[in-house]
Amino acid sequence: MADPALPDLAALHRHLLSVIAEATAIAMAHYRPGRRTSAEIIWKEGGSPVTGADLAVDAFLARALPEGIPLAYHSEERPESWQGAARAAYVVDPIDGTRNFMEGGEAWCLVVGVVSGGVPVAGVLAVPAQNQVFSAWRGGGAWLNGAPLGPIAAPAGALRATGPRSALDLLAGRIGRPLEQAAAVPALAHRLLAPVKGQADLALARGGGHDWDIAAAHAILAECGGTLARIDGQPLTYTLAGGTLPPLMAGGTALIDKIRPTLLTDSA
Q1: Mean pLDDT, range 54-68, rounded to an integer
Q2: Contacts of 38 (CB under 8 A, 6+ apart)
Q3: What is the C-alpha separation between 237 and 231, in angstroms, rounded?
Q4: What pLDDT was estimated at residue 132?
Q5: Which of 96, 117, 148 finishes a domain?
Q6: How far apart are CA 15 and CA 23, in angstroms?
Q7: What Rg, from alpha-carbon coordinates, does the chain have?
Q8: Are 245 and 214 contacting, i.e. CB atoms less than 8 angstroms apart?
Q9: 129-153 mean pLDDT
């Protein structure tokens, strides 16, 4: 059943692109290529960092996104928003790859997905240091800097995978074939698009991610003939309750469907 709060998805896509462009400018004001950020750095409980740029981007998105199209707002930086699945919600990581941003790297990204009925229906992922903006909406295709993206290419030869070595070893053991390690991408949301960019056949993530890390990338993958799935083969669900996710894999749907039967386990 369609969510009555959800607007025309093409209009939603245009709104996401407009807002992410302004949010990118906020982040770039604090970004110094190859050098430490000019933003204040705060260390959260547990040892993960957040910068003044993360918080400034989040403050802007929390206002601008619902102001243009009023949906619920769910963000990494707002624990009070982790209240479970709304019928339709923005799912935001203001800066994914904060450490990479802090040190002047190029992999960090701004991430806004939209989840409705537990399913990602639209997303935009900006990689400002690489001048790339990926976006998609359900049934409308996927785009890179306004140009349509084609389907994910089928693997040629040995399977290439990017992600933590532990995740590669786990998957290789379950499918019974070696994986060639592709270049690392430290920002999870950005890494999940490695198959879309042709940088790897599979993108892997160890357990511990969150809905805000993956919703936008999931929407983009789906419009490129791709799939985001749990490595154990079980269904992937979005609860928007702040909990952590199990190990994940992203790649072309044909490839994921081929290896999925070897992954199914009785564990959650």
Answers
A1: 97
A2: 30, 32
A3: 13
A4: 98
A5: 148
A6: 12
A7: 17
A8: yes
A9: 97
